[in-house]
Amino acid sequence: MFTRNSISVLLIIAVITWGAFLWFLGIQLTWEHAKPYSLTLAVLTGGWTLFNKYLWRKWPCRLFVRTPNLNGMWKVALQSTYRDPETREPKGRIDAYIAIRQTFTSLSVRLMTAGEHESFLVASSFDINDDGTTYLYGVYQGVPSISDRKEVTAIHYGSFRYKVIGSPVTRLSGHYWTDRETGGSIDLFDRRSELFDSFASAEAARKNIRETEHPLP
Asked: What transmembrane ranges does the database entry give (predicted)?
């Protein structure tokens, strides 16, 4: 990501290059030419900050950016190959939420389940094909609740691949694998703009919305 220092270095290189060409062309240089430097740096830094955090996902910038906007709180359905150690029965469907916070240069993906298990992104990349088909690849760390770390599961790592569906994006669907030799399918849907940091708060907010939309008689 560009910082004020990196933008300053690039601007200095541009100024030196520009000045060298003017000198080569025989145009006299004075310190007056350097006066707009601070203002130019402020404009470039501010412009980049706005673009990176906000403008990249708005029109008309969206016309020139292929990276999909995934920001939001997503409802999640998981189907895992994990089996209960005692009964050997499959886990079945797991309901969860994923909070995605995204800028043009960064992506945060945090999955939360009812048991207060969390998984968060360690590394990620987009694969955007020529036909527009887009996939999100990632490596994550899974952190179960303290009470489950010995009896049920341990801290682990995994990877995933999501297919990005819709423009604007309405769904992500794919698979995941873990270093515990388990895996499964995952489906993200019902995207909302308000973000939460726990399963309970996200579920409570959805419940309030449903009750508002469909009040009890």
From this structure: 7-31, 37-56
Query: How is residue 203 written in tokens?
Result: 């579920």
20 plus 112 within the same structural domain: no
| Beta-ladder partners of 134 | 128, 164
pLDDT 10s digits, 69-117: 999 999 999 999 888 777 788 878 999 999 999 999 999 999 999 877 8
Report how far apart, in Å, the C-alpha atoms of 143 and of each of 11, 109, 110 are.
43, 14, 11
- How far is it, in rounded angstroms, from Cα 122 to Cα 52? 20
Q: What CATH number is associated with residue 104?
A: 2.40.128.120
Angle at 106 between CA 191 and CA 108, to 5 degrees: 45
Separation between Cα atoms, residue 106 and residue 90, nearest integer Å: 35
Cα separation, 81 vs 177, in Å, equals 10
Contact in structure between 170 and 74 (CB atoms under 8 Å): no
Cα angle 57, 63, 65 (rounded to 5 degrees) comes to 60
pLDDT in tens, 50-62: 999 999 999 999 9
Domain limits for position 45: 4-53
| Whether residue 180 is found in the same domain as residue 77 | yes
My answer on whether 165 and 207 are in the same domain is yes
Same domain, 85 and 14: no
Q: What is the length of the chain?
A: 217
